Amino acid sequence: MSEILNERKDISDVVISTRIRFARNLRDYPFPGRLSEDSKRRVASAVREAALGGHSAISGRFRYIQMSELTQEEAVSLVERHLVSPEFISDRQGRGLLLLDDESVSIMINEEDHIRIQVIRPNMDLDGAYDLADKIDTLFDEQLNFAFNDKLGYLTQCPTNIGTGMRASLMLHLPALKESGAMGKISASLSKLGLVIRGMYGEGTDSNGSVYQLSNQVTLGISEKEAISNLRDIAMQLISQEREARKAMSGNIAVLDTVYRAFGTLSYAKLLGNDECMQLLSLLRFGVELGVFESIDFDTINHLMIEVQPATLMKNIGKKITPQERDCIRAEVVRTSLFRNKVPVNRRLEKGER
Questions:
Q1: pTM score, two decimals?
Q2: CA torsion 185→190→196→200, rounded to 10°?
Q3: Rg of the chain taking only CA atoms, in angstroms
Q4: According to the model, what pLDDT value does residue 56 have?
Q5: Which of 297, 272, 333 is nearest to 13 (CA)?
């Protein structure tokens, strides 16, 4: 089993996705926390016009969403799909969202800052995500007057974002490190290196399904390229540690039994609560990482981890449902996906375990 782990060349077994976020503010307006409702509308209108009326080919691919017009389920689903922050939907008045047609780019208007440009790419693609975010930033910069100081850089409502205004993040699946109890020590070490590791939905959230966000903390006195390079270097160290922890666990029959039981439950359960489902999907992904299941791919599991979220389930079926109905639909969604992929067991590994 350890040979399979050593042979894997890519890092999609650990890295789920990449995010680059820029925080920008308009020079002629107070920060959003001090804006009147009328000023919020004027800021939203200016940002919307800059995006949709630009000369870039990407301008025609955006659609504008007035946040106050969304249902609660639609708004929460945006958070579950990592398109907006939890804070952004806490008060939707005067806030707007520009969303690219493939949902790889979302631009929050009047969140903590006037503009939050966010680019998400699958796997590790820091350079690609940064290049696209930079192009969108340039599109805005050509038409809007950003708040900028020659000594401090871009001015933001929160002092921790002053400077580049950039946060680079990687979504990581770290089940072995979590199980080994190493995450507390790792988190303390990362803070000394200018990085932070948080739960699945950022600050103040849990690592549901052993999914963590690794992000840069330092934005002042360091260039965007340096921040990305530092994040990449630390991420590669975490990837190596996670893989070593997996090797240590790969021969443990109790661990393998847990993985098989997770697959069995996901394949046949009629009711699945969200927390239980996320934990079981994490174990299934762990099984794929160990080479136990041959045909299921990481993209399938990554997609399921989003689709089974409560608000996204309700949004997709288009009506309010009871918690039990939601658990029933969640189980059906998972079963259908797994049986469609047929997920055979790696029999060579199975024989080696006996």
A1: 0.89
A2: -50
A3: 22
A4: 81
A5: 297
